[in-house]
């Protein structure tokens, strides 16, 4: 298999069906083109494909010298670093299997993954990650060797099974000198049907499951998506999302090896958005949370601006809402609006895109969960080609994609190349594609429950195709319920509408088999804190700010705007929110309330905060006291308590579809 426009060296006449083979190919045909960048101490350092291939070769041979064998597992733990990506290819070159882990996982979470995946080797980024591994090493019977990338703080550690990355590479160069053809033989043994990677799910409803993906799963899906969107070798991406997440694996690894584009790693997590502006990527992916946070930052900055700048901003954003989405979709707009949009691009949209780092973007994607239509339209109205896709770890991301020129805010597009989709009688979405995972590691029961014998995967999501053949997701099928009056209750849909407001960071709604809907709200401390400072409202903590009367008034106004919008939706008018409270603490992954990808664990929240849920359905209840256990950053446990106000909000009479169109 040759890539479009490529000529393969006569020395590499094999099928490009594994990543090590693709690496060798790129090292020949793109020898001097940049493959990866990393910002370190404020300076960007680059590696060409040839340099990267040489670094991976020496690491792979070093692993072999340490005893790494075919089918061994290499856990990779840390932030986005070139060497950590190299380690995936190095393990695969030897027939091994990389297992990326979430870098913010607690030691106990790490222990489960290492033990369950039967990991023999670990590559940890730095001292923090090494300390976690050493803490649990005695409880991981398969674990033998630990490698580290950053040596700071590790000088006096016992080095009997602890290895510096560069020292392993040096061992590899000596190993290669003794047997120069060894690695080429091992790479040639690999085939498309071999296991390429194990990616663990976030564990929304229980223990994470290890999703086993083959090279065919990743490479064919990467090739199809690259062709569908016209990705090129001169594109630029920023790798800043967790390496353990399937999204990063396809965008920063699979598609990069397939198309040959350059992947840049930020200096650290706190500088990623600043580094985004420096790189100015042409291709960008982010979950909705990132786009929500960016919008929050924009709105905060505008509130701090002078009155003239605010007036100009809001006027031209009105023009963008009216004309911008139509322009990017190729729909005709009046000449006056087009001229105003051009002026707005000079005064507002262009500078704003530059501040966000989006000046060069040709293509952006969002996925992971539903994005609010208003947030989605905000970015497209600026002229940013942001699109949605729908997928899962089990599908190697791509199930549907939005085609250029046919993008809708409330759908996730049409089937991706070579993907079949059907809707079950109960509304559940099923798909079949080249990306369908091989199995769940050591979990045949879960595999059989999720994947049929003929390859159809149960997504657990409810949805339908609209008249134009676009898929619309309603919610998780198990989460869609009914109020006692028969009205549909779609919690995620309601929560996404609430989270459009930059003052709201997280929301959890309730209503199934209840008389009405209620909500828990987490305020966005940065946005609300900025508002409090501008209005001379003192506060000492998140808890104090969340309990303030004026903050409750602000959030009540947001909820009532959502209710007004729901009133015009025939399917959801009956699920308007009647009561809400602002939680005394932020929902936190360390407390088990969110997954590491920030998805709500509804079952745990329902158990942990059952007292608050029940109180919201007692009409005479205005306050409720609760004490909650919390986990601090250093792992210590503590508690936080509060007497929370339960606020009633206005609901609206349903508006018929005819009246809604007239309005």
Task: Characterize this entry briefly.
The chain has 663 residues and is of the alpha/beta class. It folds into 4 domains: 19-266, ANL, N-terminal domain (Rossmann fold, 3-Layer(aba) Sandwich); 286-384, no CATH class; 393-478, Luciferase, Domain 3 (Luciferase, domain 3); 481-662, ANL, C-terminal domain (GMP Synthetase, Chain A, domain 3).
Give structural notes:
- The protein is α/β, with parallel strands linked by helices and 663 residues long.
- The longest helix is centred in the middle third of the chain and has 22 residues, at 307-328.
- The chain is built from 22 helices and 29 strands.
- It is globular, with a radius of gyration of 26 Å.
- It has four domains: 19-266, Rossmann fold, CATH 3.40.50; 286-384, no CATH class; 393-478, Luciferase, Domain 3 (Luciferase, domain 3), CATH 2.30.38.10; 481-662, GMP Synthetase, Chain A, domain 3 (2-Layer Sandwich).
Report the mean per-residue pLDDT as an integer: 92
Percent helix among the residues? Answer: 25-40%
Largest sheet: 5 strands, parallel
CATH superfamily of the largest domain: ANL, N-terminal domain
Arrangement of strands in the largest sheet: 4-3-5-6-7
Structural category: alpha/beta
User: Would you state the CATH class of the largest domain?
Assistant: Alpha Beta
Q: What is the count of distinct domains?
A: 4
Strand content: 15-25%
Q: Low-confidence stretches at least 5 residues in length (pLDDT < 50)?
A: 1-13, 657-663
Distance between the terminal alpha carbons, to the nearest Å?
56 Å
List the keywords.
single chain; 663 residues; alpha/beta; Rossmann fold; Luciferase, domain 3; 4 domains; five-stranded parallel beta sheet; five-stranded mixed beta sheet; 29 strands; 39% helix; disordered N terminus; disordered C terminus
